[in-house]
Design brief:
This protein is mainly α. Helices cover 73% and strands 0% of the residues. The protein has a single domain, classed as Amino acid/polyamine transporter I. It contains 15 helices and no strands. Helix 1 packs parallel to helix 9 and helix 4 packs antiparallel against helix 14. The longest helix has 43 residues. The protein is globular and about 65 Å long.
């Protein structure tokens, strides 16, 4: 199986980014934010999004000097083989733990809220089987599927939000700053890694049609994600109040089980298929990311062959926790804290080394020529 050579456009790229990051609002990420920031939890995506502008800007600044090169190649060039190996291995470990944690969470959601009589191993196995198949199809195929399903997913989310606002209580938003502005900023910035997927997007830099498409798509996707996640979390507060949300592991799924449309009360039957499709696309991308990193680190040219093995390993490790609802919740909290410095500091380090090496001056000379 050859590495994909086709390039994707801005529509497919934005759809991929939105499904990677935007779907976090449907798992237990909002519960983690509300636990520490209380009813001001909806501000965390905005604050984090504004801070995220800095590392994304620095990464784009660096990568525009290396046309056609991905994160792994630029890392090798800037840090040298030895230090680059350590950095990329760290990034791989974070990505691999993240896919284990998130797939275990999604398996728990499906098993505890929808298919309560189905064995966990069956749910987990089917989830990873579909995602592994999607990942082996290549990045351009993932992008095509992401763009095809994205409008339907957005419409379903928009409908859910309208119904939530109509049946909620705006008074739950107050006091607007929770325990105070400083606490909101501090606790939000400690969990900046909810946007860490933007770092991994630079693995796909050579797959995008042009530098202009990559820049524009990244900034537009960040803006849409901030708006989507913030508005969705506001709707959670409208319906439940933050004290109730703190006790709910998966507020999105409680929302779609609570809202109704006239005489139609089982709304989850409408929203569940769209959420599942988004989940399949998201984890297909995650598996592809892990395969790229693993293939580069250990010199495996046809890295797509690693995807089925990675998916199998994810299932076996993800099945270890006996009570995933609580154990995985704690692990994800710690992962958000650990990954935040990596996501924020690595772009600074790459930019600084490129600056010291005179890479930006060389790039300007090449542009003049």
């Amino acid at each position: 199986m050859e590495q994909s050579k086709q390039l994707i456009g801005i529509k497919e790229y934005i759809a991929i980014v939105l499904l990677m990051v935007g779907t976090k609002v449907t798992d237990n990420t909002p519960s983690i934010l509300f636990e520490y920031i209380k009813n001001a939890g909806w501000m965390a995506p905005i604050i984090n999004g504004l801070i995220t502008i800095i590392p994304i800007y620095l990464l784009i600044k660096v990568f525009t000097n290396y046309k056609g090169k991905s994160l792994v190649e630029v890392s090798d060039h800037l840090f040298g083989k030895f230090f680059s190996f350590i950095i990329l291995l760290t990034i791989l470990l974070v990505a691999f733990v993240a896919v284990i944690v998130d797939t275990a969470i999604y398996t728990d959601i499906i098993g505890t809220m929808y298919f309560t009589k189905t064995p966990t191993i069956i749910i987990y196995g089917i989830l990873m089987l579909v995602c592994a198949y999607g990942a082996t199809r290549g990045f351009e195929q993932i992008g095509s599927v992401a763009w095809t399903v994205f409008p339907y997913l957005q419409v379903s989310l928009f409908l859910a939000l309208i119904l939530t606002i109509g049946q909620g209580n705006a008074a739950f938003l107050f006091p607007i700053l929770g325990d105070g502005a400083w606490d909101v900023v501090k606790e939000s910035s400690l969990r900046l890694s909810i946007y860490a997927d933007f770092l991994y997007l630079f693995l796909f830099y050579p797959y995008i049609k042009s530098v202009k498409v990559f820049k524009k798509g990244t900034w537009l996707a960040l803006m849409f994600i901030i708006i989507n996640i913030s508005i969705t979390m506001v709707c959670y507060i409208f319906l439940f109040d933050y004290k109730t949300i703190m006790q709910l592991n998966y507020p999105y799924h409680e929302v779609i089980r609570t809202i109704s449309l006239g005489f139609i009360i089982n709304m989850e039957a409408f929203f569940l298929p769209f959420w599942l499709i988004a989940s399949f696309v998201r984890f297909s991308i995650y598996l592809y990311i892990n395969a790229i990193l693993l293939g580069h680190l250990f010199k495996i040219k046809h890295f797509e062959y690693l995807i089925p093995s990675l998916a199998t390993l994810v299932v076996f490790i993800g099945m270890i926790p006996e009570n995933p609802t609580f154990i995985i919740f704690d692990i994800k909290e710690k992962l958000l804290l650990i990954a935040t410095p990596l996501f924020f500091l690595l772009p600074f380090l790459m930019w600084l080394i490129a600056k010291l090496k005179g890479e930006f001056k060389h790039a300007n000379k090449r542009d003049i020529r």
